[in-house]
Amino acid sequence: MIHEVDEALRALIRDQALTDGIEIMLEAPTKDWAARRNTPTVNMYLYDIREDLRRREVGRVPEYNDQGRIAARHPPPRYMKLSYLVTAWTQRPEDEHRLLSAMLAVLLAHSHLVGLSGDLAELGLPVPMTVALPPPEDRAFADVWTALGGELKPSLDVVVSAPVLAGPPRPAAPLVTEELVAKVVDRDTNVVMSRQLRRWRP
Asked: What string of DSSP letters covers 66-131?
């Protein structure tokens, strides 16, 4: 799932915000990494993964067969928040600001991630995306840069909430195709009485 979000986010930025000749990298933007850059680069560093508890659901989700009957049930998907630190790296701060502005305009125009593939596309569920919102109280961008060993740099915080299946589906119980009838015998009279308990509806 994570690599599918990587590719969709990379494609969105590359196709709609950048010009030719600008690379998009996923490596951690450390001092050593920055020193090796000799071409304009956008860095999409995935720095945090945690569950989006606001979207957690309980129960079972039915799966239907070609006849429209329930064939299996699976747990509701869990949503994972993938947080990306998006930065621009060029020789001049002015050029970096232009790249950040172009990416911000594109990302703000999409409330959900587009161009999904693989399991994310098969699930058919929306993949919400936010950009430039304040970080949670237990996290600060300065702490991220400190952990990377680099200096604080203008960045966009992009958070994608991606669904992932929480368990395999379980086959549904076989469909009842016969009527259930209870029979009672009166021992004194040997009279058999029957009562229909369940009627099969095709």
From this structure: TTSSEEEEEPPPEEEEEEEEEEEE-SSHHHHHHHHHHHHHHHHT-SB--S--HHHHHHT---BEEE
- Interacting residues of 68 by C-beta distance below 8 A, sequence separation 6+: none
Torsion sign over Cα 191, 194, 195, 197: positive
Per-residue pLDDT, 198: 55
What is the dihedral sign for C-alpha 107, 112, 115, 120?
Answer: positive
The one-letter code for the residue type at 177 is T
Is the full-model pTM beyond 0.85?
Answer: no
Residues 163-200 have pLDDT tens digits of: 998 766 667 766 666 666 667 777 777 666 666 555 54
Q: In whole angstroms, what separates CA 48 from the centre of its chain?
A: 14
CA distances (Å), origin 66, targets 63, 69, 174: 10, 7, 16
Distance CA 77, CA 144 (A): 29
The rounded distance, in Å, linking the Cα atoms of 14 and 147 is: 28
Per-residue pLDDT, averaged over 89-97, amounts to: 95
- Distance of alpha carbon 189 from the chain centroid: 68
